[in-house]
Design a protein that fits this description.
By secondary structure, the protein is of the alpha/beta class. Helices cover 38% and strands 11% of the residues.
Length: 418
Amino acid sequence: MRRPCKVAAALLCLAVLLLLYLLAGSAPPPPRWAMKDPLRTAEVRKYTLSVRVSPGSVVVRDNFDKSRKPGEQKPPKEPPSLQCMHLAVVACGDRLEETLIMLKSAVLFSSRRLCFHIFAEDPLKPEFETKLKEWPSSYTKKFEFNIYPITFSVGNAQEWKKLFKPCAAQRLFLPVILKDVDSLLYVDTDVLFLRPIDDIWQLLREFNSTQLAAMAPEHEMPKIGWYSRFARHPFYGSTGLNSGVMLMNLTRIRSARFKNSLIPGGLTWEEMLYPLYQKYKNYITWGDQDLLNIIFYFNPECLYVFPCQWNYRPDHCMYGSNCRGAEDEGVSILHGNRGVYHDHKQPTFKALYEVIRDFPFEDNLFQSLYYPLQSRFLDTVHTLCGRIPQVFLKQIEKTMKKVYENRVIVYLGANHKY
């Protein structure tokens, strides 16, 4: 008598689980970008979910416009500048390959559509166009790009162009040039994304009413920081800022008036740049980054400081691990300054760069990216940065798991819908 009861109970549990599974598959949740977003000018009531997956996968689209009542007007479309995440980079000289690998890392892991703003010298323009159009269509449909010449709206163009590294000062003029862009992420060419740009883009929501830009500290410890020991000009906080990864609300920057050491009243961003450079040009070492430090020294309320894992550099591990955020959560954005992708001083950084560079777009992420990284890291354990491989792998592993979970959901949703 006991055995038939146990069998019946097991069958009943199985039936309940099957029912829950079918119900879950028939009602997928709306995508995150369709929810109310404070960065958008209007809440979007009509949206279409398009999931991009590998060739051969089923694409599911759900139209939610059916809830609109008869006679009700359609809500206005979003401005084009808010339909994608804007990423800007400046490339001069021999930075073509570095820039392409950076853009590749952005496309590999990000979910939402990307808009690339590439500022480049004239000889590099056709090379960028050719290389980007060679990428597989499954990836080129995830982004659009524009290429701009190197231009400076105020001051001496040749003087700006030679400041620190070739063309680096171009970033200072992005609010002036990209007038139709509301918000923007600027990165140096030697940056690699180890998680979706979507995640750092969300930090724009955390800005308070006065904040208009975000950067990470130059150092975590003042005792070994460059600015705290050597700077001959004002700088932000106790360790200064690193501008290799800079999130900007361009609309706020264009409309703000900034306190400064030049005149008692405030100046606009464009009005301030050249006089500020003229005053401090004999005291700055790192060019445009030093100018940004001076600006936010006088306007600290305008800056949002994000933690070191969003701009992780050799300095965070070459003297021993000193980025607690990366130890806890993993590196989010890798910044290979000091030319470490191209020499043997930091083999961990070089391994990441080369594995992403050599990864074939259509290959399996685990087999052709994650496992080669693990193998390469075994050869770096003798270095201070190589002793903590989990710091570099944690976010990549999480991102790849998320990619494959999303693909499984798409297949299940397709099977139930059709």
